[in-house]
Design goal:
This protein is an alpha/beta fold. 45% of the residues lie in helices and 21% in strands.
Length: 212
C-alpha cells in the first residue's frame, strides 16, 4: 500500500472519496482536465478553515468545484467563497457541483484572468480570511503578492501543487511551471509577514499565516 492510499483509507471517509470520484468523472466527461486537489488535500483544507474560523474565503482556480466544496465545508453555512476562474465553462461546472453539495448561495464566481480580478478586489478594498491558490504556476508569486494585500490579519494563504510531482527537488527541471513553484515557495518562506511550511500531502500544499 502506498502512502497516499494509506492516508485515504484511514483518514478519508467513503463519502468524501465518492464525492471526489464523482466530480472527477463529471469533469472528465466535460473534457476538462482531471486535476482536482487530492481527497486528503481537500480534507486538510476543510480542517484549516474550521480551525481558523475563516468565513470570507477566496480561491484562485475553480476547475470543477471540488476544492471550493472542501473549503465551504469548513465554514458550514456561515461562510462565503469568492472563486476566480479563467474559463467560463469550468465555472459553470463548479457552480453545478457546489449547488449539488448544498452551498449554492455561498459562492460568487468571477470569470477572467485572475490577476485582473484580484487587482479589482484590491481596488474595491475587499478583505479575506483564507486563500487557496491553485491556478497557473508561473503566476503564483504574483497571486501571493495580491493575496497579501487582500488579507485580514491572521489570514491563511495556501498554495497547491508545491512539490510539482517532486520536480522542485531536481535542478534539471527548469521549465516555467517548476520555476514558478520554486519561486513561490521561496517567496512565501522568506516573506517577513508570513509564517509558512510546506506539507508533503497530495502534490504538496504550502501553508502560510499572515502575522500582524
Amino acid at each position: 500500500m502506498e502512502l497516499e492510499q494509506y492516508i485515504q483509507s484511514v483518514f478519508i471517509g467513503k463519502d468524501a472519496l465518492d464525492d471526489h470520484a464523482k466530480i472527477t468523472k463529471a469533469i472528465e466527461d466535460r473534457g476538462m482536465p482531471t486535476i482536482s486537489v487530492a481527497p486528503e488535500t481537500g480534507k486538510l483544507l476543510t480542517l484549516l478553515v474550521k480551525m481558523t474560523g475563516a468565513k470570507k474565503l477566496l480561491e484562485i482556480g475553480a476547475l470543477g468545484g471540488y476544492s471550493g466544496i472542501c473549503l465551504l465545508r469548513g465554514t458550514g453555512k456561515a461562510g462565503h467563497l469568492t472563486s476566480l476562474e479563467l474559463v467560463e465553462s469550468y465555472a459553470d461546472a463548479a457552480r453545478e457541483h457546489v449547488h449539488q453539495a448544498g452551498f449554492n448561495n455561498q459562492v460568487s464566481y468571477k470569470i477572467g484572468p485572475a490577476l485582473a480580478s484580484l487587482q479589482a478586489l484590491v481596488s474595491e478594498k475587499e478583505c479575506y480570511d483564507f486563500f487557496f491558490i491553485d491556478a497557473d504556476k508561473d503566476n503564483y508569486v504574483n497571486y501571493l503578492d495580491l493575496c497579501i494585500q487582500l488579507a485580514n490579519s491572521g489570514a491563511i494563504i495556501c498554495g497547491d501543487n508545491t512539490l510539482w510531482d517532486m520536480q522542485v527537488l531536481d535542478s534539471k527541471f527548469q521549465d516555467t511551471n517548476t520555476k514558478g513553484i520554486r519561486s513561490f515557495n521561496e517567496a512565501i518562506s522568506s516573506h517577513p509577514r508570513l509564517e509558512s511550511i510546506l506539507i508533503p500531502i497530495g502534490d504538496g500544499l504550502t501553508i502560510a499565516r499572515l502575522t500582524d
